[in-house]
Amino acid sequence: MPPEETPRSVISANLLTQLAVSRGMDVADCLRDTGIDAATLADPRSQISAEQELRLVRNIVRELRHLPDLGLDAGLRYHLAVYGIWGFALVSSPTFRSAADIATRYLDLSYAFVRFRMEPRGRDIAVVLDDSGIPEDVRRFLLDRDFAALTNAVREMRPGGIPPMRVQFRGPRPVYAERYAELCGLTPHFDAAENSVLYAAAVIDTPLPQGDSQLARLCLEQCRQMLAARQARGGVAGKVRDLLLHAPGEMPDIQRIADALHLSPRSMRRRLEEEGTSFRELLDEVRQTLAEEMLSTGRIKLSEIALRLGYAEPASFIHAFKRWKGMSPSAFREQQLGQAPDQ
Fold first, then answer.
1. How far is it, in rounded angstroms, from Cα 111 to Cα 247?
2. What is the CA radius of gyration of the chain?
3. Percent residues over pLDDT 90 in the chain
4. How far is C-alpha 73 from the chain's CA centre?
5. How far apart are CA 299 and CA 293, in angstroms?
6. What is the C-alpha separation between 146 and 3, in angstroms, rounded?
7. How far apart, in Å, are the Cα atoms of 244 and each of 161, 239, 311, 331?
8. pLDDT tens for residues 130-167?
C-alpha cells in the first residue's frame, strides 16, 4: 500500500503542531484546511491520512518560512517510543543492519514520507533517503525531518550513535549546513546524485547494547501482522482496528471509538456490518493479537495482561484466550518460551 494511502496515528501531527506553537503559530493556523480538529489532535488514538499531515506541514512551512532549519528541529522530537511496536523492534534488534532491514521493510508503520532503502556499496551499506515522491514545497522540510529522526533513532539504539562514513544530499548547501554536522558528526556533501548516509560494515554488524534476538523476532512478527491487518482492513473496520491497537491498557468502548470517527454507535455498527464484521469481532481480534505479543515476551504476568486488555479479572481473559487458541494463556506461553506456566 502506498504511504499516502496508509492511515497513521495523529501523534506525528501532534508533535509537529507542538513544535509550530513553540515557534509562535496558533493551533488553528496549523490545522487550517487539514480536516483535523483540536479534539482529534489531542487524542493519541485518532487516525489521520498522510495527505492530512501533508496539509499541516504545508501550513507550518508557509507560516514559518523564516526558520529554514525547522525540519531538523521537528525530526529531533521523534523518539523510538512514539512509533510503538515498530520502534520497539528497532531498539531490540541485534545489530544496526538488522534494525535497518526491519525499518525499511515495515516503513509504513512509521511516520516517514521519505522512502528509506538499504543498498550495498562494496562491503559497506548506504541508507538512501528517496524524497522524489514528496511535493516540492514541503520536500526540504520532510527530508530534514526524516533525516534528523534517523539520527535520533541511531543514537537511541546505540548511545553515542553510529558514525557514518559519508553523508550527502541532492540539494544545494543550505545556510544551516553546520547543523547536519552537529547531528551526524560530519559535514555532508551537497549537490550530490542522491540523499544517502554511508555506514561501514564493521560498525553496522557489531552487536547493539539492547539487542535481544528472541524479542526482536517477536516484534518483527507483530510488525508483519499489524501491517498485514492494516492493509487488509480498509474503510471503517480498518480505522476501528487501528484505534483499538493504539489504546492497549484502555480498550475504549464503542461510544468512544464512534466519537473518534465522528459517527454515532448505530451508524458505526451499520458500516461495520456492511464491511462484514462487528465491533466485538474487531475488539477480539485486537485483544488476541496483543495478548499473544505480551505472552510471548515472557515478562508480563497474566493478571497484568488481563488488566491491559480491559478485562475486569484474569478469569475472563483466560476464558477468552481458550476460546481463541484452544489452550490456556499459560500453556501458550510455555509452548512459545519453553518455561513453566505462571499464575
1. 18
2. 21
3. 46
4. 19
5. 11
6. 14
7. 34, 9, 14, 26
8. 999 999 999 999 999 999 999 999 999 998 888 899 99
Give the residue ranges of the chain where pLDDT is below 70: 1-6, 229-234, 246-250, 297-299, 336-343
Predicted local confidence at residue 180, as pLDDT: 96
Cell of 84: 510503538
3-state secondary structure the chain: CCHHHCCEECHHHHHHHHHHHHCCCCHHHHHCCCCCCHHHHHCCCCEECHHHHHHHHHHHHHHCCCCCCHHHHHHCCCCHHHHCHHHHHHHCCCEHHHHHHHHHHCHHHCCCCCEEEEEEECCEEEEEEECCCCCHHHHHHHHHHHHHHHHHHHHHHCCCCCCCCEEECCCCCCCCCHHHHHHHCCCCECCCCCCEEEECHHHHCCECCCCCHHHHHHHHHHHHHHHHHHHHCCHHHHHHHHHHHCCCCCCCCHHHHHHHCCCCHHHHHHHHHHCCCCHHHHHHHHHHHHHHHHHHHCCCCHHHHHHHCCCCCHHHHHHHHHHHHCCCHHHHHHHHHCCCCCC
Cell of 255: 461510544
Do the beta carbons of residue 46 and residue 260 sit within 8 Å?
Answer: yes
In the structure grid, which three cell numbers stand for residue 26, read together?
496558533
Give me the amino acid identity at 325. Answer: K
Q: Which of 331, 109, 338, 332 is nearest to 220 (CA)?
A: 109
Residue 125 forms beta bridges with which residues?
A: 120, 199
Question: The pTM is what?
Answer: 0.68
What span, in angstroms and rounded, lies between the C-alpha atoms of 181 and 159? 17
What the block records as the C-alpha cell of 28 is 488553528
Q: Which three cell numbers stand for residue 151?
A: 539520527
CA pair distance 204, 111, nearest whole angstrom? 24
Between CA 281 and CA 236 the distance in angstroms is 13
At residue 162, the pLDDT reads 87
Residue owning grid cell 523518539: 79
Please state the φ and ψ torsions of residue 77, each to the nearest 5 degrees.
-85, -5
